[in-house]
Amino acid sequence: MRDIANESRPSDVRAASSARDGGDDVSDSAVEVKGLVKRYGDMLALDYFDLDVRRGEIFGLLGPNGSGKSTAINCILALLTYDEGEIRVFGEPVTPTSYDVKRRIGIVPQNVAVFNELTVTENIDYFCSLYVTERKRRAELVDQAIDFVGLGEFRRFRPGKLSGGLKRRLNIACGIAHRPELIFFDEPTVAVDPQSRNAILEGIQRLNREGATIVYTSHYMEEVERIADRILIMDHGRHLALGTAEELKNMIGMGERISVATLDLDDVTLRRIRALPFVIEAAWDGKELDVRCRRGERNLADLLDMLNASGVNVGHLTSRPPSLNDVFLELTGTALRDSADSDGTEE
Predict the structure, then answer these.
(1) 336 with 62: CB under 8 angstroms?
(2) Could you tell me which residues belong to the region Disordered (predicted)?
(3) Which region, left, alpha or beta, applies to residue 132 given φ > 0 means left and ψ of -120 to 50 means alpha?
(4) Is pLDDT above 90 for 14?
């Protein structure tokens, strides 16, 4: 994909989107989900789940395997029926036959969904033809999609000849060729190299700058924190927390996490550190002391005072603010990434 990291994001994306769809009387929401309930027999997959995605934003949806992310998306796309609740996309209720609304939606699935018998160009043309029947216009859109994901030199290649990262780019091109206004990305960077991952994330940001509303799911929290305007954390089919990355971090009691390189910490000193009023948890692996702290202005200074008073030699020292993983750990008791299967798939 082309290098777009330094492009600025216009501040009027939502305003332009609203004007395009009819002016100020149009709802600011691209997706509205209220009280959604989905059962599989005795299992409650969605438990009165709520979601509100604003037009023009990148919306991150986080949750471990089995949290209900994919179920919620499939209900929104009318691929699954549900037991209770209300779903609207661009202000319209969505049913299996809501073709006008569905033409405005794109989906990039977690698993690469292309035809191995077709070339790159033929694959993109096929998926684009599901929405655009005019050949001339479709040819233009296919060329634009190929250029967008940087597959120009691979036009005649079949998927079997592409690397994993290039297949992911082809998967994206097939989902966006018809220029949808709302795009769902479900784990688009699973099992790709860092260079391809960076290119994919930059491409998603560019789509957003060009006016598309993005719903992005991932097990990689640093990706979501990098690109999302707002983030919703869900588990067991329920809405747990919603906000910007900084707002989510401010919801929890944890402050910074301090790491101290030291080889001579003893059990007595470790117990004293754990007894400090601002310490949530402290662990030492023989080489590094790791301390999770509550919020406070003197945590680092007080910890160093304790170590110096105990005669502990201190090496490299780092202090970092709480991460999204810390937020999820405090909300659910489970680290998000640890909940993912090795291949990143969701059950």
Answers:
(1) yes
(2) 1-27
(3) beta
(4) no
